[in-house]
Amino acid sequence: MRGDTTTVETNIHYPTDASLLNDCVRVLTREMERAYEIVGELACFVNHRRRAKTKLYLINNTRKEETRYEYYLELTRVTRAMPTCI
After folding, report:
1. Rounded to 5 degrees, what are φ and ψ at 68?
2. 37-76: b or e for each residue (b if 16 or more CB lie within 10 Å)?
3. What's the burial of 23, exposed, middle or buried (CB within 10 Å: 0-12/13-18/19+)?
4. In Å, how far from its chain's centre is CA 52?
5. What's the Rg (C-alpha) of the chain?
6. Helices 49-60/65-81 angle, 10° precision
7. For the CA atoms of 12, 18, 22, 28, what is the dihedral angle to 10 degrees?
8. Which DSSP symbol is given to 84?
9. Per-residue pLDDT reduced to its tens digit, 21-33
10. With contact defined as beta carbons under 8 Å apart, do 68 and 17 qualify?
11. Is the pTM above the cut of 0.70?
């Protein structure tokens, strides 16, 4: 068996902590939506994708370090609250 090991340059963004947290929220939402389709009303969740995306935008475009830290805390809270039922 032989495999191709050719490398190609791509435009991949550098994974920051905030972007990884946003990816977690996005993937958890997708998986919870799949579970909701299978189980129905037994699986309840709140979609926090918009909140996480807004916090990511604010983190990336904030100049003050203190304000950025507050947004990181809020994004962390959003990610932790993601799989819970409210």
Report:
1. -60, -40
2. eeeeeeeebeebeebbeebbebbeeeeeeeebeebbebbe
3. middle
4. 6
5. 17
6. 160
7. 110
8. S
9. 999 999 989 988 8
10. no
11. yes
